[in-house]
Amino acid sequence: MRQEVRIGGFGGQGVIMTGIVIGKAASLFDGKNAVQTQSYGPEARGGASKTEVVISDEPIDYPKVQAPDIFIAMSQTALMKYKDDLKEEGILIIDPDLVNEDDIADFVADKKIKLFRAPATRTATDVIGLRVVANIVMMGAIVKATGVVSVEAAKEAILDSVPKGTEDKNIQAFEAGYGLIE
Amino acid sequence: MRQEVRIGGFGGQGVIMTGIVIGKAASLFDGKNAVQTQSYGPEARGGASKTEVVISDEPIDYPKVQAPDIFIAMSQTALMKYKDDLKEEGILIIDPDLVNEDDIADFVADKKIKLFRAPATRTATDVIGLRVVANIVMMGAIVKATGVVSVEAAKEAILDSVPKGTEDKNIQAFEAGYGLIE
Amino acid sequence: MVEERFVLGNEACALGAIAAGCRFFAGYPITPSTEIAENMSVLLPKNGGSFVQMEDEIASAGAIIGASWSGVKSMTATSGPGISLMQENIGYGVITETPIVIINVQRGSPSTGQPTMSSQSDMMQARWGSHGDYETIALSPSSVQEFFDFTIKAFNLAEEYRVPVLVMSDEVVGHMREKLIIPDSVDIVKRVRPELEEGEQYLPYDAPENGVTPMPAFGDGFNVHVTGLTHDKRGYPDTNDAETHTDLVERLCDKILKNKDKICSYKEEFCDDAEIVVVSYGSPYRSVLTAVKEAREEGIKVGSLKIDTPWPFPDEEISKLAENATDFIMPEMNLGQMVHELERVAGKDANVHLIGKIGGVLHTPEEILEKIKEVASKKED
Amino acid sequence: MVEERFVLGNEACALGAIAAGCRFFAGYPITPSTEIAENMSVLLPKNGGSFVQMEDEIASAGAIIGASWSGVKSMTATSGPGISLMQENIGYGVITETPIVIINVQRGSPSTGQPTMSSQSDMMQARWGSHGDYETIALSPSSVQEFFDFTIKAFNLAEEYRVPVLVMSDEVVGHMREKLIIPDSVDIVKRVRPELEEGEQYLPYDAPENGVTPMPAFGDGFNVHVTGLTHDKRGYPDTNDAETHTDLVERLCDKILKNKDKICSYKEEFCDDAEIVVVSYGSPYRSVLTAVKEAREEGIKVGSLKIDTPWPFPDEEISKLAENATDFIMPEMNLGQMVHELERVAGKDANVHLIGKIGGVLHTPEEILEKIKEVASKKED
Amino acid sequence: MNIIDSMLCKGCDICISVCPKDVYAKSKEVNSKDVYVPYPANQEACVKCGLCEISCPDQALYVDREVE
Amino acid sequence: MNIIDSMLCKGCDICISVCPKDVYAKSKEVNSKDVYVPYPANQEACVKCGLCEISCPDQALYVDREVE
Amino acid sequence: MAVKENPYKKYLREDRLPHIFCPGCGNGIVMNAFFKGLEGSDVDFDNVSMVSGIGCSSRIPGYVKCDSLHTTHGRALSFATGLKVGNPNQDVVVFTGDGDAASIGGNHLIHAARRNIDLTVICINNNIYGMTGGQISPTSPKGSFGTTAPYGSRDVPFDLASLVTAAGASYVARWTTAHPMQLAKAITKGLENKGFSFIEAVSQCPTYYGRKNKLKTPVLGMDYLKANSVTKRRSEKMSEEELIGKIIVGEFANRPHKELCDNEEDLVNENYDGGLAIKSAFWEEF
Amino acid sequence: MAVKENPYKKYLREDRLPHIFCPGCGNGIVMNAFFKGLEGSDVDFDNVSMVSGIGCSSRIPGYVKCDSLHTTHGRALSFATGLKVGNPNQDVVVFTGDGDAASIGGNHLIHAARRNIDLTVICINNNIYGMTGGQISPTSPKGSFGTTAPYGSRDVPFDLASLVTAAGASYVARWTTAHPMQLAKAITKGLENKGFSFIEAVSQCPTYYGRKNKLKTPVLGMDYLKANSVTKRRSEKMSEEELIGKIIVGEFANRPHKELCDNEEDLVNENYDGGLAIKSAFWEEF
Ligand SMILES: Cc1ncc(C[n+]2csc(CCOP(=O)(O)OP(=O)(O)O)c2C)c(N)n1
Ligand SMILES: Cc1ncc(C[n+]2csc(CCOP(=O)(O)OP(=O)(O)O)c2C)c(N)n1
Ligand code: SF4
Ligand code: SF4
Ligand code: SF4
Ligand code: SF4
Ligand code: SF4
Ligand code: SF4
Ligand SMILES: [Mg+2]
Ligand SMILES: [Mg+2]
Predict the structure, then answer these.
(1) Is F40 a pocket residue for ligand 6 (Cβ < 6 Å)?
(2) C1-263: which CATH topology?
(3) Which of C163, C308, D364, H14 would you call most buried, defined as having the most Cβ atoms within 10 angstroms of its Cβ?
(4) Where do the structural domains in chain C lie, given as residue ranges?
């Protein structure tokens, strides 16, 4: 099965890294195939940041996301800019502290979107005490809400990606994120 | 009728200019067509210098000399280097002071070459008192010996080509050269 | 008053440029094109124009584009290595639709190769040398007179279509002297400023039907932004939008492709009943005519198509000839370049024969005649 | 030990270069190729090699040629404007028969164009971009793994034929991350010094049968003179002799043309009974396979020919396919470039259809499928 | 009142840093671009030197020089 | 005897000019390349300073340093 | 009544704002200093044409409401040479970056300086390639990090102002974004100098140079520039060691001499009585 | 017994003599000075590789019995950079001309100087483009004539030695063909300097520069060089006017500092224990 994931936020949130970690988890540790891409160019400057991952059991031919099954929005700008082609009944995960839910009420209803809220930034700051791990917190939420990658693969991919010495904090963050979704 | 002329000598003798003046005489003042070409590149450095002129009543298609009807050699090097493809019964004009006639005796005989001697450099120095007009002296000899261009056209072309103030000397040189050939 | 001179091809080119209204030349010496720069350095100050010897060919190409936007017609001239260096800025000239003329006096190549020998081996580079999709206009003179005439024509085409135009000459034509007839006046295409209706917003890249927008000079008050980035009708960069890019690049190509019939120029001789057509451009043409005439005398139905504008390639004319002709012969001073175009257009209907020749020496009439005879005799089999 | 990584295409390229034995990289940053330089700057010092950021792309191309003659395998990477600037030195690499690898991660063009968008619009430039006659070897990867593999292959071909080899990648492949499998050892072609019989005079350009002469390093004591001028078998300039030039340039071309069967690489899928063949190279291939499979499900006899080496173009294979196929479809991220080759080879026997697409977005499988269906339905008419 | 155009401000805080009179402070509200736009918390202190205006990279800042 | 290789000499006269001892003079005979090759007309004056050798652009000139 | 907007905004194409520069990028400050410098000079904004190469800094002319030529990387001065010689009546201002001017464009820079062509060149030196994502440039300080200097740069950087002085420019100055008023004044002088004027504006790139070199915020970047600047005069009393890592600010050259366009005009006047063929592409006849 | 031939001839490829240079061209003298300088240095001729661009002067390496790379116009230093960094054990000598080095190649020149790469560059400055037939070059004196300066050059020429000094070279000197012994000595120093060494050899081109500028014979050309040279020391006491048209000869810089290949080697040693991959293209394995 082919699954298309999109993550959007603003520069500095580690959005791209989340995409890479998901891709790595799927392709190196879950035995699937994955292609990760991201936005380049002026639009990627300062403001909005975006990454996309395609995951599949089969070899992946067309490598780009055409209409995501899953969209994670970590900022209001990203939410509004990138939401439109989310699939009917797709999954949308938002950081409720950074986006204005009112603006998407109709969208969610019309498209029968499965909406999840994961206050990743707040959790990172308050629970882990490290704002920069917000993306890993969100990773936990993504894994729980979507199951695109397994928990084990996710953890291995995180350990493979974060700086030495920060492993524990990151696993903690992942688990805190995992716990954010009921 | 197509006539092919080649002139060779060493750098500084004004060989190229002679070619240009002949071409000019034919095309601008004799109402014929002419194409003048010359050697470029390393071989044109310091040492040997060469120019070729094709003259014809018809439009000239192929612009290069394939086998000259007329060859004027103003140095030994040029003579030996460029003589070989002179046509049977072609005209060869040499400056006898600058070339070694012995070296071409066989050649002249075998090919039934019409050989003319024009001591242009000596004439320029001794008669005109200006070494640099040796090429114009030779021009006179060429016109007399070959008739490729008319005397009038030759003179007009010379006047059109030489620096202001030197016209008289050059015409004198031309005539001296004309007189060198019986 | 008509004037007659006996001049070098390269000098004729410079005289043509001046006659066409060229008043800026930037260049860097290189054999066998150098005499063009040298003549321009003499002529321009005498005609109110400027000559700048730049530090290299990249700068030369840049300077003439800058000069064109200042409102003067401009040109550079180079050969082999120099034209390779200009490729980036040629692409810039294309995308910014800057009228400029670039002379390439072709020499033996690749690399430094044979600086003083002739060739036609940059013909495909003229079409494909810069990165990206684009179309080219290129003219190839075969005589001193044509070098003068085609240089003027190049300026006119550059202005008419707002494109860089290449004159693809070669060492033979550049370095020979012939009679040049300079008419007392020549037809030149002058540049026309945009005209705005009252209150109309100025859109410097909003092209009319023919794809060519009028062009102001810097300082005319239009405040135009000129960029090598993909840009919208306002001239503003818009680099991530597929449609903007497609519209722009297709229009740039269509300016030339859709006006092919107006741009293409060629000369047919003995073609009416020709079963064999010798197609040539540039200096080899000189040997073609002799060969064709001689072959005709021997009863071979052969004609000559002499192409003035190798780019855009005259597809239509060739197709028409291919209705009668069974064989095309193309002499080129390369290992086969424009012959690819000939094959593309005529290959389905006729046999295409290349006479490729490198090393710097022009094809002789005999070589071409021989090929004509060979092809004719095969036909008889 | 086989290693698996999840990396960017551009990083895979750098890893491939290291695996192939590349120990010198000179480059100048340009989107979307920059990550190759960045990765080489990290990797080279860890492997005994050197990374030099040069002042521009001209210098980069020059430096890798210099380095190659010093005896190390060398590479540069660039895009669009940068590759245009390298054209002169690429020609120098060709005539001096210097093994080097040049990566072009293609972007939207012409000119500065769309720096962050994808394209395949430098394919013809790869063949014709430098002045003069020459032949090219170019590879086009369609995946991260292929970018690694083809970079190694590029080094091997460069050494085997003593030529500059281009890897014509594109932004899609350069900028996506996929799993890369790094084998514990790769086959590499090592350079071999000339071996002289006793008393034999050393002729650095006296080529054996296959046209490729062994190559010493500077400092090995062979006292070789390397020049971009036309040179004789001793390597000495001989620029006015037609024969020397013809021999040299023809040999340079023949090295590639006569070894086509060894150089060309491609992959056929579903071609055995194919009436329609989709021919692709580089990233569009990714959409081709999906489309072909779907069309097959709908009963259309369509196959895929995926070309790894657009240059030299696999004439023979295409001709073979054209015996059965009536139609060829070629998706390209340009306005039609390699399709000219396809037309040249297959055009007489089959219909050739281009799906040209510019603007930076990859063809979707749907677009290709649609074309397949359209062609299939026309065939039924 | 000195005015900051919240459509243009990118929240770099340079104005806060360069003002010799500490006129500006960061606001608590983000604008539509996720930016915390400064405001003249200490307007009275402004001596109209213009340093903030010339140092604002986004031409977002206006110093009110009118005499009220 | 200082020797001038007439196969190499191009007749530039630099040796004549640079020699502090006026050793060289122009010969009256042209060589095969139309060049008047100098000769050491004044060999005895030579102090073996080597200036002519290093100044001969064509590596045509040899200064005899052997003690006879 | 004047509009209540930033005083430099009126020079900009409003339909393109906000510009693409990252938050706190020094480019915007240099733009302001340029407008201020222009206002202080005898140059009329309506007579200004701008030229640039490629880079973040080179994007500036595209935002200014005047004729502008955004050219190829490193080549701005070549284009500007043609533009200016073609019509010397314009005031031509070139914006460029350290990579654009000093790396790929170094040759055009020294040649334009040698010819002393009447251009005002504002080089925004942020010690990095911003546009392409943070590679080192020929002005990156020894020991600084960039994406292509993962182990720290080992090269000695160019002293651009000195190099351009040695190449022959008639006016040369260097200031930083932390000295906007002085920068503006230098630009005024540059605009008024009839000859080649080179103003180096050392600037912060928080996004790339900052991120790699512990100057992550714009404010840290500007504070660094301020703290490490020494005036030319003071620097002359300092030893080479003391000067390591310092930014010497002030005027490096101010020695007017004949410039290229004047030379060209002389040539025309000596050989022709019709004067310069300005905008002749639009003429009816020749 | 030694052969009775010119002492510098043994370094040359005899099968290529006589070389293509015009009678009396300074190129041959600079070649001799190079061989003499080499003999006086600690460098072994067998360890020398040569590189050049395009021009008459750039033809020199092709005549020398060693490995040589005759590259593209202006780019010699780029090629030399790769050649030297690829195998720092070689002594790499670059021959170039004023056009090659300072016109089209100016950028590579200042960058090579900045990197202080260990090359010895001998620039034969004949103030003209010889190979292409006498066009002016960036070093042509103001007022001199060339085929592209029919009315006399109006530009101020580069002072190459000073420019290269400003760019960062560690050894810089200038002499003329009329000072062959001093030139040889400077070349010795340049060869021994571990860093970028630039030796400018001002030279005569009788064929083109001479013909256009009343210095038709080689001897006139050399006499002119001799008469118009002033030593660096003396020049420092002369006014700018007095120096017009003068050739300042002597040493311009001699300040050794860390060079590029050493920096590269440091990086390898810090990150790898296998040492530099010299001639690795020939290795069996990696
Ligand atoms: C020929 C060419 N090479 C490389 C590039 C890629 N490129 C674009 S901008 C740039 C560097 C810009 O640096 P700088 O001039 O310092 O500008 P900044 O972005 O730092 O302001 C490079 C290398 C290009 N556009 N063209
Ligand atoms: C890219 C390129 N442009 C131009 C030329 C033509 N060209 C060859 S040598 C030369 C000038 C050489 O001048 P210089 O370096 O001073 O050498 P000289 O001949 O005076 O010794 C030029 C312009 C070339 N070969 N390549
Ligand atoms: S004008 Fe000066 S004092 Fe007033 S806010 Fe701005 S910087 Fe502060
Ligand atoms: S300086 Fe300008 S952009 Fe920066 S925070 Fe202040 S108002 Fe906003
Ligand atoms: S060695 Fe000295 S003295 Fe003897 S001939 Fe030569 S220059 Fe004259
Ligand atoms: S210096 Fe050499 S080449 Fe010149 S005349 Fe003397 S021997 Fe002959
Ligand atoms: S990348 Fe750097 S230079 Fe470019 S806009 Fe951002 S901060 Fe400015
Ligand atoms: S043209 Fe000048 S530089 Fe070239 S070889 Fe002749 S004299 Fe020497
Ligand atoms: Mg920068
Ligand atoms: Mg020179």
Answers:
(1) no
(2) Rossmann fold (3.40.50)
(3) C163
(4) 1-263, 265-380
Please give all residues whose beta carbon lies within 6 A of any atom in ligand 4, as ranges: E 4, 9-15, 38, 56, 58, 60-61
Return d(Cα D244, Cα G43) in angstroms, integer: 61
Tens digits of residue pLDDT in E4-59: 999 999 999 999 999 999 999 999 888 877 889 999 999 999 999 999 999 999 99
Cβ of E51 below 6 Å from ligand 3 = yes
Residues 62-91 on A with a CB inside 8 Å of C are none
At what angle are helices G160-167 and G106-115 packed, to 10 degrees?
Answer: 50
Q: Does H158 touch chain G (CB under 8 A)?
A: yes
pLDDT of B12:
84
Number of H helices, E strands in chain C: 14, 15
Q: How is chain E split into domains, by residue range?
A: 3-62
F67 pLDDT band (50/70/90 cuts)? low
**What is the rounded CA–CA span in Å between residue D336 and residue G281?**
35
C-alpha to C-alpha distances, D72 to D191, D304, H50, nearest whole angstrom: 9, 38, 18
Please report the atom of ligand 5 found closest to the CA of residue F15.
Answer: 7
The neighbour count for residue H179, using CB atoms within 10 Å, is 23
- The structure's pTM equals 0.98
* Per-residue tokens: C319: 């197709």
Mean pLDDT of residues grouped by 10 in chain D (381 residues)? Answer: 94 98 98 98 98 98 98 98 98 98 98 97 98 98 98 98 98 98 96 90 91 96 97 96 98 97 97 97 97 97 98 97 96 98 93 98 97 91 66
Among D230, D313, D251, G16, residue whose Cα is nearest residue C111: D230
Residue nearest to atom 24 of ligand 1 (CA): G73
Q: How far apart are CA H78 and CA H94, in angstroms?
A: 11
What distance in Å separates the CA atoms of residue D332 and residue D310, rounded to the nearest whole number? 12
Domain E3-62: assigned CATH number: 3.30.70.20
Residues 72-91 of chain H whose Cβ lies under 8 A from any Cβ of chain D: 72, 75, 77-87, 89-90
Q: Which amino acid is at A44?
A: A
Could you tell me if C249 lies within 8 Å of chain D, comparing CB atoms?
yes
DSSP letters, B84-105, are TTPPTT-EEEE-TTTS-GGGGH
Residue H133 tokens, joined: 């037939």
Residue nearest to atom 8 of ligand 8 (CA): H25
C265-380 has which fold? Rossmann fold (3.40.50)
Q: Are strands D137-139 and D164-170 parallel, antiparallel or unpaired?
A: parallel
C1-263 and C265-380, same CATH topology: yes
Q: What whole-number distance in Å separates Cα of residue D123 and Cα of residue D57?
A: 19
What's chain D's Rg over C-alpha atoms? Answer: 21
Kindly tell me if the per-residue pLDDT of B154 is higher than 70: yes
Structural domains of chain H, with CATH: 9-257 (3.40.50.970)
Residues H50, H54, H60, H62: is their CA dihedral positive or negative?
A: positive
HEC string of chain D equals CCEEEEEEHHHHHHHHHHHHCEEEEEECCCCCCHHHHHHHHHHHHHHCCEEEECCCHHHHHHHHHHHHHHCCEEEEEECHHHHHHCHHHHHHHHHCCCCEEEEEEEEECCCCEEEEEECCCCHHHHHHCCCCCCCCEEECCCCHHHHHHHHHHHHHHHHHHCCEEEEEEEHHHHCCEEEEEECCCCCCCCCCCCCCCCCCCCCCCCCCCCCCCCCCCCCCCCCCEEECECECCCCCECCCCHHHHHHHHHHHHHHHHCCHHHHCCEEEECCCCCCEEEEECCCHHHHHHHHHHHHHHCCCCEEEEEECCCECCCHHHHHHHHHHCCEEEEEECCCCCHHHHHHHHHCCCCEEEEEECCCCCCCCHHHHHHHHHHHHHHHHC
